[in-house]
Structures are given as structure tokens and as C-alpha cells.
């Protein structure tokens, strides 16, 4: 499967799908990371101040980790190339105009956008409108 780089093709085939699960963003020092937390994390990023984890709500609560807000993950099912130009900008601009924050995570096959849980349906509509 070849990853797509053409912006018009990417947007036409975006096919955004929302997760049914809520996620939270939390951070903790490296010495508090456990293999369990790492294995259930939807995403992880090392920063100078600590390690950010994107976790299912229940996992963060069980580990007594602080977080603010609940997010749903929208996966854009088009196989986007990491070299594609403009896709993130088009999505975040459209969501921003609708008053929806967008936390975008680019992975090898797809882009994933974490939006406030209560705005996920509107976000799906906004992203779907990009394919028209």
C-alpha cells in the first residue's frame, strides 16, 4: 500500500472515524512510567518536562494521574504519507473555524485527531465536509 501525498486526494478520501472511547492527556516523570501504562497508551511523547501519555480515562483514573478534559480520537482512514503537505493545516483550520480544538498525532499509516469529546460529532461533520 502506497501512502498518498496529493492533498486533494487525501481530503477527498479522508474518511474520518471517531473512537467510541474517551481519552485523556496526562504527564508524569520518567521514573513513574510503568510497562503497563506504556502498553495501554494510545500515544506517548517524551518532553523535557515529562512524558505525555494519551490514555483511556479508566487507566488514568486507576493510576491516579491528573488530567483535564475528555477527548475522542478521530482517525482519518486515508493512508497519508508523512511527507504529505497541507493535510494537517486543512483539518486544523477547518476545525478551528468551527471552534474545535484539534490535537493531531501523525502515525505511520494515518492521522489521528483528538477533539473534545462533546464536540466529536460536529468535528466529524467538519472533516467530512473537506471531501466535497
Written overview of the protein:
This protein has 132 residues and is α+β, with helices and mostly antiparallel strands. It has one domain (7-129): VC0802-like (2-Layer Sandwich), CATH 3.30.2130.10. Helix content is 30%, strand content 31%. The chain has five helices and six strands; from the N terminus they run αβαββαβαββα. It has a six-stranded antiparallel sheet with strand order 2-3-1-4-6-5. Strand 2 (43-47) and strand 3 form a beta hairpin. The longest helix is centred in the last third of the chain and has 11 residues, at 87-97.
Q: CATH superfamily name?
A: VC0802-like
Proportion of residues in β-strands: 25-35%
Binned, the helix content reads 25-40%
Number of strands: 6
Number of helical segments?
Answer: 5
The Cα radius of gyration reads 15 Å
* Secondary-structure element pattern, one letter each: HEHEEHEHEEH
What is the highest CATH level, the class? Alpha Beta
InterPro entries: ACT-like_dom_sf (IPR045865), DUF2241 (IPR018717)
Domain DUF2241: 3-71
Organism: Alteromonas marina
Pfam family, one: ACT_3
Strand and helix layout:
Elements: H1 7-12, E1 16-28, H2 35-40, E2 43-47, E3 50-56, H3 57-62, E4 71-76, H4 87-97, E5 103-106, E6 111-116, H5 120-129
Antiparallel strand pairs: 1-3, 1-4, 2-3, 4-6, 5-6
Protein name: Transporter
Pfam families: ACT_3
Domain DUF2241: 3-71
List keywords for this structure.
about 130 residues, alpha+beta, VC0802-like, six-stranded antiparallel sheet, about 30% strand
Amino acid at each position: 500500500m502506497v501512502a498518498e501525498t496529493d492533498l486533494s486526494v487525501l481530503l477527498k478520501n479522508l474518511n474520518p472515524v471517531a473512537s467510541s472511547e474517551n481519552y485523556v492527556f496526562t504527564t508524569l516523570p520518567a521514573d513513574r512510567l510503568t510497562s503497563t501504562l506504556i502498553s495501554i497508551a494510545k500515544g506517548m511523547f517524551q518532553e523535557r518536562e515529562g512524558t505525555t501519555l494519551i490514555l483511556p480515562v479508566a487507566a488514568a483514573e486507576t493510576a491516579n494521574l491528573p488530567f483535564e478534559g475528555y477527548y475522542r480520537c478521530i482517525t482519518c482512514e486515508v493512508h497519508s504519507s508523512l511527507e504529505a503537505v497541507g493535510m494537517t493545516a486543512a483539518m486544523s483550520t477547518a476545525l478551528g473555524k468551527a471552534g474545535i480544538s484539534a490535537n493531531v498525532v501523525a502515525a505511520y499509516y494515518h492521522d489521528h485527531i483528538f477533539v473534545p469529546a462533546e464536540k466529536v460529532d460536529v468535528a466529524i461533520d467538519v472533516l467530512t465536509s473537506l471531501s466535497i
